[in-house]
């Protein structure tokens, strides 16, 4: 299947939520390349950016999980 | 009265003498603002060459290829890293969603973002529209192929879809690509649109350098004097 790479869609449907990780890494590399003042601190800023975004997304996931699994059943219990 | 100072310039890597013609700063006051304290001082502080603003040649280079504008300005490290970010996002989108993730006809809104990547995205879309899609003979529209169809040409030379024969199916023939579906297709199109938006930021930074963020605050004259670099 290697010759079909970039032509056929990936079939990793069960791991769709992991697809954010490479995306955030590439965004951090490109964004910090033009926003970092001192390039000596570039990779540290990239790492901080990645951790901030992934941490924020994980926190959002946790909050929504609590809303859906705890808060909503508590407010409107199913008969 | 002019004041002659010896300062350490990161670009030159050796002490250089500068002549400051303004009033002597008070020890607690920040360094004076002015032309000598903006572009040139920024260039010294970052170790990068002085930049023009706007730089139309760099802007044009950034349109042609992600990061090329920065490379033309001599900011090679920034340029290649920006290139890696944009191309990484673009190729990652193609990896996840296949070539179907770049489609100016069926996903026009997403393509507005993708188009900001530049000729790379436009070329990918051209290949998708002309080498992977074909005309549906019944509805007379251009679309991707369905399973069990093969790409063929009609009497007028147009690429059209037709049902594959059992022998062709036996040989494993079918449409040249499959359509992306579900969340993976959304993630792929999002990644490519983000590549375009990121490239737009990089283009602006090449065209109008120095607009991003604030410079670090100037150190008080007392601190500079303590290091032997003040006036």
Description:
The complex is a heterodimer of chains A (about 80) and B (about 230). Helices cover about 65% and strands about 0% of the residues of chain A. Chain A is mainly α. Chain A has a domain at about 25-35 and about 40-80. The mean pLDDT of chain A is about 95. Chain B has a domain at about 55-205. In chain B, strands 1-2 form a two-stranded antiparallel sheet. Chain B has a two-stranded antiparallel sheet with strand order 3-4. In chain B, helix 4 runs antiparallel to helix 8 and helix 5 (about 110-115) runs parallel beside helix 8 (about 180-205). At the A-B interface, helix 1 of A face helix 4 and helix 8 of B.
Tell me the layout of helices and strands.
The complex is a heterodimer of chains A (79) and B (231).
Chain A: H1 20-35, H2 42-75
Helix pairs in contact in A: 1-2
Chain B: E1 3-9, E2 14-20, H1 39-46, H2 56-64, H3 68-72, H4 76-97, H5 108-115, H6 119-132, E3 134-136, E4 141-143, E5 149-153, E6 159-163, H7 166-170, H8 182-207, H9 221-226
Antiparallel strand pairs in B: 1-2, 3-4, 5-6
Helix pairs in contact in B: 2-8, 4-8, 5-8
